[in-house]
Each structure stands twice: as C-alpha cells, then as structure tokens.
Request: fold
Amino acid sequence: MQTQATVTDTSRYPLSRKQRELAKREALILDTAQNILHEQGYSSLTMDRIAEAIEYSKGTIYNHFPNKEDMVCSLCCRNIKNLIDIFTRAAEYEGTSRERFSAMGIGYSLYHQINPLDAQNIQIIKINSIREKISLEKLSEIESLEQRITEIANRVVQEAIQCGDLPKEVSDITDSIVFGYWSMLYGSLLLEQSDIPLENLGFNPGVKTLWLNCQKFMDGYNWLPHSPDIGSESLFNKISSDLYSNEVDMLNKRNK
Amino acid sequence: MQTQATVTDTSRYPLSRKQRELAKREALILDTAQNILHEQGYSSLTMDRIAEAIEYSKGTIYNHFPNKEDMVCSLCCRNIKNLIDIFTRAAEYEGTSRERFSAMGIGYSLYHQINPLDAQNIQIIKINSIREKISLEKLSEIESLEQRITEIANRVVQEAIQCGDLPKEVSDITDSIVFGYWSMLYGSLLLEQSDIPLENLGFNPGVKTLWLNCQKFMDGYNWLPHSPDIGSESLFNKISSDLYSNEVDMLNKRNK
DNA sequence: GCAATAATATGACGAAGCGTCAAAAAATGT
DNA sequence: ACATTTTTTGACGCTTCGTCATATTATTGC
Reply:
C-alpha cells in the first residue's frame, strides 16, 4: 500500500532514523524549490525540475506533497516562522507599547524586503484558485501560524490599554486595530511588489512612507505617546538599529 | 499576413463596420470569460472552453489577445471603469472633504463586495509570474486606469489642505496619504477575500471594521472634522444611502 | 541466512491546457 | 470571374501535472 510520507508528527519522542531521513528529504525538496524560485521564478518551478535536481523521481516528491500548490504552501509555513521570530523580538523590545507595535511594522517591512520571494509565495497561496488545491491540513497549519503572529500583535495592543497608552474604549476592538495595521502592512507590501511601477501612479513609496502611515494610524487611535510633528524618523532609526541591525546590514549589502 | 485584431483605437472617428464587429466580438469573449469565471472559477477558465462557448475557434481568440493572462487583464481594464465611476461620484459628493474621502473607502469596499470576481482578477494580475505574460500595452492600460483613481483621491486630499481640513504640512506627502489609504483598503480586501477564514485568526472583519480603521487613519492625519468617539456609523449610513443606495440594494438582494 | 512480505521509489503514461501555423474559407479588389 | 488579401480554423507539438503498475529496497519471521 502506498502511504503518504509524513514528518509532521509533533510528538516529543525522538524521531526514528526513517523519520529523520524523511524530514531531511522534505527539507531538501523545499530547499530546491526555493532555489528554483529564486533563480528562475515561479513559472519555471515544475515538479520534474525539482525531481531532477534532487535526484529522486517525481513520484517520490508526490509522497511528500499531494500537489505543487501544497508544496508552495509548505514553503510558506517554513518561512513564516522567521516572521514569528521577528514579531516576537518586536514584542519583547524594551520601550513603550507603541514602540513595540511600531517595531512590528518595521520588522514586517524589512523582512519582506529581504525576502521578496516569501511575499510572492504568500500572495500566490492567497489566490482562491490556488488555495482550493492545498490540503486542508496545510491550510490550517499556515492559518495557525498566522494566528500566532496576530496574537503577538494583539497582546501588545492589550498591554497598551492596560498601561493607559491606549484608551480603555478600544478594549473590545483590539482585533480591529491589529487587522487595520496588518491590512496596511500587507496592502503596502503588495502594492510595492517589485515589478509594479508605483512611481507612475504618483506614489512616493518605500519603507518610510509605510512607517509614516503606520504612525498616523496609531495616532488616530490615540496611542500615546503621539508621534512628533517632525522627526519621527529618529525613532525609526533607533528601533531599526536596536532590533534589526542584522537585517538592515543584509539589505545594505545586497543593494550594493 | 496574420495581424493582430485590435479595437483599442481611441481616435474619435467613427468605427468602421469591421471595427465594430471586432469590438463586439471582443466584448463577447470577455463576457464569456467572465461568465465562466463566475460559474466555474479561474481554474476552469480555458481558451478551449471560451472558444466553444462563443462558437469561434481558439485561433480567433488569439487574434484578439496574445494569451490568456492578457485576456484576464483586459477584463480587469473593462471592470475597473466601474471603480473609476464610484470614485468620481465620491469626489463629487456634497459634503466635507473628509466625507468625500470616506465615501471613496465605502465605495471601494462595496464595489468589491458586490463583485468579488473583480477582486480576484486584480489579485491574479498582480502576481509577478502572471504579470510577465501580459503585454506591455495592456499593463500600461491598466496602470493608467489605476492612476486615474489615485488622481481622483489625490485631488480630494489637496482640496482638504486648501480649505484647511488638513494641515498645510502634509502638502508634499499627499501621495503618501493616498497610498496609505489605498493600502489599507486593498490589504483589507485581500485579507477578507472570501475563503480565508479570518474569524479563526481572531478578527472581526467586515466593512464596519474597515470603516473604523479608515476613520482612525484620517484622524491620525488630523483630517477635520475628527470622527466622533461614538456614532461614526451614522455618517457611514448617511454616505451609503446618499451615494450608494443602488449598490447597497444589490448587496442586500443578493444576500437574501 | 533466506524466503515472504511490506514499504518505498520509479518513470512511462494519460489527460489537459497552451499557443502555433499551414491550410481552408471568406472578403475584397480588379 | 479571377486574383489577392484577410480572416478563420482546428489539428498539432509541447509542456506540465498527477497517477499507478512495476521494480527496487527494507523489514520481518523463521
């Protein structure tokens, strides 16, 4: 009988040799997929090409993933963990609640600038006609990972209310605040997507614009302390260097 | 010689019989494509199916569109005109500058709720791997249509500055304001996309959430008059019934 | 150590879709 | 009425997906 290879066993028991090998191969497949995406783009990502690259047959890949879309979703799951890490760091940042929330925006923006591929993959798996091919298990996996992120953000909002940085009245719409913030981050991300010519749309895009809009969004909710009329950039720089110096370096290096 | 059928001639001269027939058939193709999308979804949208439905051969379709993606983009171009109409109506709304800007948000949101297909198509043509197949002409067509929308929004922002509803200091970042606003609209739209289970993410989504966030965004920019602490919904209802009663009816009818 | 059995890997194959192009059909010009 | 240009057609080649009978490898029982 042909059974589905699986490494999603989350039990604490040590994996058997077999399971380890399976996990290793799964990682190999995902690595290879990412490479191809990186070097040749999504339209060149075919199961045959992956099979050739990893020196296993196509059937073996299909023992790991029910289809191509599911595989891309797995890639997203793997990579979104980096984003969780960034959000966690932001939530633990030593500063006001507002600075911590701001840090999340910077982190999100930085992360996707460094890894535009991830943004593209996320974009792809959000398309309904793609989505319907992804297994329910994988869908709920990515969903719960995203949930972890929104929970982290939500906690900061609640802390802000508790310590009086945000008015008590918003206690029952903390979700909305997170949703709005995320919408703006996500929307900006997609609108800024590499190949869409925003300049011609009359926009002056970039991280700084997003930063400003995020600040104004928080101002609107009366999140104290308010952003200064001028010079909120110094806060931006402070947070960037405090929390994301590695990421900023990486970005600078790449742009050279 | 095989030449490309074209009806994009924008000259004012009356079209010849031939051109009219061509335009008619192009519309037929797009209508049919939209039908198939509506009834069977994007994965069932194939050139062969369209050909069969319109009772022309596939080759004839390829005389109108260089490929499938270009055709979907054409569909977007055709439909985005409705959005321009909505934005125009919003810009001409008799009310404060802030109300007009708000009206744009409501209109955008309503429009995509009524036509979720359009939102999906827009989402699709924003994917790089799709985009690279679309002809440059079509890309610049949709770009300039989108530009018309942002221009309309931008004009309202400028009027707001002129009449003192927005502080003079933002004069040179009107683009950013429009960009932020649009990001939030667009981001919310995509995050709310039909099949993504937001409830489980802890969100309480919907038009009202978006409305609130838009209001807070404007508050953040100090766009006068500020939204009231409670009861900004009455303004929402007023604008909806003043400007979009047709659209609201349509939506109610459909949900019945 | 070996046969029997179970698990896994393979790649040829069918199905489906895209886009092409030589040939057929229709329209136009003379 | 015939020649020439334009348009339409659908069979065809190509690519990709995902399957599955068969081959290979691993495991178990004795």
Remarks:
- Residues 136-162 of chain A form the longest helix (27 residues).
- Residues 2, 46-48, 58-59, 62, 66-68 of chain A lie near DNA strand D (CB under 10 Å from a C1').
- The mean pLDDT of chain A is 90.
- The two ends of chain A are 54 Å apart (CA to CA).
